[in-house]
Amino acid sequence: MFNKIEKTKDILVTSIMMITMSIATLVAFTNVVLRYVFNMSLVWAGELTSYLFIWSALFGAAYGFKIGMHIGVTALVQAIRPKVAKYILTVSLIITLIFMMVMVKWGYDLVMFNKMIGQVSVDLGVPFWVIYLCVPIAMTIAVYEILVKIIQIIRTPGEDFHYETIMKGH
Predict the structure, then answer these.
(1) Can you give 102-156 as a three-state secondary structure string?
(2) Spatial distance between the Cα atoms of 68 and 149, rounded to a whole number of angstroms
(3) What's the pLDDT at 44?
(4) Could you tell me the CA-to-CA distances from 143 to 28, 36, 98 in Å, in that order?
(5) What is the pLDDT of residue 170?
């Protein structure tokens, strides 16, 4: 059951990244062609492209925790004893987890505030709370991925700890 949920989450996250990036690229390209070839442009294209890139980036950042793509001081962690590296990485991930949990709360508050005031985007006419949903959703996925890494670290004996195995899944 857990593997099925995990696979569904991965498909959902990668699909959101791929679809939003593809549409944003297509809209931006189309608008450039319209502007330089036909001397016209789509008024809403810039706004849509910006929002889609934001969605893609936030979901990409959340997925980055799963595959170990975030910046880390791996040379330092790999140069020290495995037990010490395990401790340092655990503390680092706990700090990151706390920050991401704050981002979930902040994102939720942002969505609720915008829903309450009913503000809509200028060119698209989409409620801002819908646009901002990517913040609490993507950060919740990031929290989940970090928790999975922390659990993996805790379950790994100190002498068997290796950064690449935990963080990159190798």
Answers:
(1) HHHHHHHHHHHHHHHHCCECCCCCCEHHHHHCHHHHHHHHHHHHHHHHHHHHHHC
(2) 10
(3) 95
(4) 32, 44, 9
(5) 46
